[in-house]
């Protein structure tokens, strides 16, 4: 795509020319995204596709369209499936049809932005899926995510899509929230670096989409949605400005630095101000402070929700527009801006400003008439020949991310890895033993047949010589007789059934028939659902052989009973369509789980939320749960030993250099995640108990020592408001610790080496 002006540059002349030619109604039409895309096209009686009457009416109303959401979406909410949805080979044809019809209907031949859900792969028939964000975060590997995001973008671009709606900005601050799986964990730095990776991969680099294989990203949700009281989706986040800036906005800054072209304003309010009406957030912080000049989209029906605050739909639309929202999503209120602008010149000016930003994005994406001079509508994408290699690349990277997402939580007697040749009978039980959908998470389309397998199938493939017994419910004594090991596939699922009820925005409404997580499935109790603790205890009581638990889940569950009764525990998140093979390989030694938890695992359901970077410890507070943390953030075991030693620092006036040696004594190479934590004291505010300053994932060759080094800004390493005399920061890498103070402060050698350590995480 040829248009790559910097996001902060003035609107190009082409945009201003088009803007001056638009009528007030046409301008407002560019700000609306009212249609559900799957309702915009239908199959024609003689083959091919045609626009529906509903779509034609909307296009005629505005003399064009600003954006169209979910043209290819297929899932339980849309109702689209392989029986009636748009297949991969049909996407280019349908996209070209829509673009041509929209261009023909308008006086100015402006194309329409096609926006699609792609939180971990395209939510369309044939869309290749990645592990969910929470699983990806356990791999601590931004480089792999950049590659995977680029592959997903290539698939979207080949389908004619312009905007990828991607979850990235929410922090997992409360495991009761059903959307925990969409978060990159609880730490702002880890989340920010993974967000940067998504933007870089999908957009092809700073400045916007580069080349035919990239798309613009709309990141959601801005901001602090993960902080909602009680984990209740879309409700109030009662936090101060400091926590907002320190925890929830670093990912936003990272995204702007990476060149993100869109953000989605969240449902929740922050101290009473809805994000869609929060001018301080959307204009003051995002535009003035960060220099962002892309578009802000409202979450689905979020502008209409402002009526409770503003008093009327028109007032709600004006409140969102004044705050900085440019593009609505399904709202009726934003369609009323034409009359509001006619009555108030200030509103008319705001409509112009928002329309200018939408048109500038369209210019970048080649959707203005001058971008396609002489073309008949929007040129169709190449289609199938571009989709096939994109599918293959995304699939390969999905396999890699699935392996990286596994975290070994418990293995005291080194039961894992199992020796495949020693296994003659394996009992596999638990609610996720036979369920492919348990691996996938929320926001997924129906998969093609044989594109993913359950854990039962993966184990049968890996152990063709062994008897695999997979009973429903609790294994009987006959099932367990002669077994070498019992594997329990535990956890939850975000699978949404086609007969579920859904709210107007697509969230599960009412009791979910299957799902125990996902949007609309917040929980008051984060114990394992469905009596799984009792299942583990009963299997332990009946079994004479070892018991291995695999937890497949999209939120931190309480695993206290599991660790008490199982001989080994592997956490797998929602690892995607290749999750079963990855889990099987890890259990049988085909790969080593080296991931680290991106969240704090609670010991008791009544002690949540508990986070590693809180300012106060929760230990010893609850009389009935004196030790509320089961596994800390950053925890993870390994099969093979890796040593950490020689933690050294060099402090200068403006920077701090930190080095640590990582030793791999094994005869095979080792993937090692190396996090650097800090406790900063001496400042003007109460310090957090620990903070992640930096991290690195490295490959250490066999029987080799490598040095991991970071050069960090001094202001990041010392407490806010600290004087040179008071400032002190304790640094930690696994079991190593050292203390630094600002430059020119005399210090003795404070390095403390607490032995070589296996990868486990902070204590």
From TrEMBL:
Keywords: Hydrolase
Domain Glycoside hydrolase family 3 C-terminal: 406-639
The Glycoside hydrolase family 3 N-terminal domain, residue ranges: 89-360
Protein name per UniProt: Glycoside hydrolase family 3 N-terminal domain-containing protein
Molecular function GO labels: hydrolase activity
Protein source organism: Streptomyces lonegramiae
One Pfam family this sequence matches: Glyco_hydro_3_C
InterPro entries to which the protein is assigned, alphabetical: Cellulose_Degrad_GH3, GH, Glyco_hydro_3_C, Glyco_hydro_3_C_sf, Glyco_hydro_3_N, Glyco_hydro_3_N_sf
């Amino acid at each position: 795509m040829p248009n790559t002006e910097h996001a902060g540059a003035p609107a190009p002349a082409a945009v201003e020319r088009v803007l001056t030619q638009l009528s007030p109604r046409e301008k407002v039409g560019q700000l609306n995204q009212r249609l559900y895309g799957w309702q915009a096209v239908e199959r024609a009686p003689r083959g091919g596709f045609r626009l529906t009457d509903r779509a034609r009416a909307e296009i005629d109303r505005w003399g064009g369209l600003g954006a169209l959401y979910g043209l290819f979406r297929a899932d339980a909410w849309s109702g689209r499936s392989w029986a009636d949805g748009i297949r991969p080979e049909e996407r280019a044809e349908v996209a070209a049809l829509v673009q041509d019809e929209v261009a023909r209907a308008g006086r100015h031949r402006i194309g329409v932005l096609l926006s699609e859900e792609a939180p971990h792969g395209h939510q369309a028939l044939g869309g290749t899926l990645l592990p969910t964000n929470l699983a990806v975060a356990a791999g601590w590997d931004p480089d792999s995510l950049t590659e995977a995001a680029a592959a997903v973008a290539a698939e979207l671009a080949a389908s004619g899509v312009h905007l990828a709606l991607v979850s990235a900005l929410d922090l997992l601050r409360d495991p009761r929230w059903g959307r925990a799986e969409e978060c990159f964990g609880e730490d702002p730095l880890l989340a920010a670096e993974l967000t940067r990776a998504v933007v870089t991969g999908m957009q092809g680099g700073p400045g916007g989409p580069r080349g035919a294989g990239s798309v613009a990203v709309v990141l959601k949700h801005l901001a602090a949605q993960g902080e909602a009281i009680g984990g209740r989706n879309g409700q109030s986040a009662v936090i101060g400005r400091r926590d907002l800036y320190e925890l929830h906005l670093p990912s936003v800054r990272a995204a702007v630095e990476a060149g993100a072209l869109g953000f989605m304003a969240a449902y929740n309010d922050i101290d009473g101000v809805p994000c869609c009406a929060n001018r301080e957030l959307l204009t003051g912080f995002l535009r003035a402070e960060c220099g962002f000049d892309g578009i802000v989209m409202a979450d689905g029906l979020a502008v209409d929700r402002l009526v409770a605050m503003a008093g009327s739909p028109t007032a709600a639309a004006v409140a969102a527009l004044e705050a900085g929202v440019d593009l609505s999503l399904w709202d009726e209120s934003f369609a009323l801006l034409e009359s509001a602008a006619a009555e108030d010149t200030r509103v008319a000016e705001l409509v112009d400003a928002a329309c200018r930003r939408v048109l500038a994005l369209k210019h970048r994406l080649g959707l203005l008439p001058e971008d396609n001079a002489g073309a008949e509508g929007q040129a169709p994408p190449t289609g199938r020949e571009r989709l096939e290699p994109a599918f293959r690349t995304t699939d390969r990277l999905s396999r890699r991310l699935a392996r990286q997402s596994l975290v070994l939580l418990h293995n005291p007697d080194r039961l894992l890895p199992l020796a495949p040749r020693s296994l003659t009978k394996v009992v596999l039980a638990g609610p996720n033993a036979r369920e492919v959908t348990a691996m996938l998470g929320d926001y997924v389309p129906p998969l093609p047949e044989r594109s993913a397998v359950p854990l039962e199938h993966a184990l049968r493939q890996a152990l063709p010589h062994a008897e695999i017994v997979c009973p429903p419910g609790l294994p009987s004594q006959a099932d367990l007789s002669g077994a070498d090991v019992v594997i329990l596939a535990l956890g939850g699922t975000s699978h949404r059934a086609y007969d579920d009820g859904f709210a107007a925005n697509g969230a599960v409404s009412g009791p979910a028939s299957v799902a125990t997580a996902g949007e609309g499935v917040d929980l008051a109790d984060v114990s394992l659902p469905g009596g799984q603790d009792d299942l583990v205890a009963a299997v332990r009581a009946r079994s004479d052989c070892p018991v291995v638990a695999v937890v497949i889940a999209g939120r931190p569950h309480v695993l206290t009973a599991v660790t008490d009764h199982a001989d080994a525990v592997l956490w797998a998140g929602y690892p995607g369509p290749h999750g079963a093979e990855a889990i099987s390989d890890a259990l049988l030694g085909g790969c080593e789980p080296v991931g680290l938890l991106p969240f704090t695992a609670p010991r008791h359901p009544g002690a949540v939320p508990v986070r590693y970077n809180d300012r106060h410890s929760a230990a010893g507070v609850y009389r009935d749960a004196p030790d509320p943390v089961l596994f800390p953030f950053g925890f993870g075991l390994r099969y093979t030993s890796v040593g950490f030693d020689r933690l050294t620092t060099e402090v200068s006036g403006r920077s701090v250099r930190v080095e640590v040696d990582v030793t791999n004594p094994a005869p095979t190479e080792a993937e090692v995640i190396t996090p650097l934590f800090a406790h900063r004291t001496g400042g003007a505010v109460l310090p957090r108990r620990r903070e992640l300053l930096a991290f690195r994932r490295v490959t250490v060759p066999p029987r080799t020592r490598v040095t991991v080094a970071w050069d960090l800004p001094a202001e990041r390493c010392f407490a806010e408001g600290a004087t040179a005399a008071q400032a002190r920061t304790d640094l930690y890498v696994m079991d190593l610790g050292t203390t630094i103070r600002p430059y020119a402060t005399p210090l003795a050698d404070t390095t403390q080496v607490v032995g070589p350590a296996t990868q486990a995480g902070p204590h």
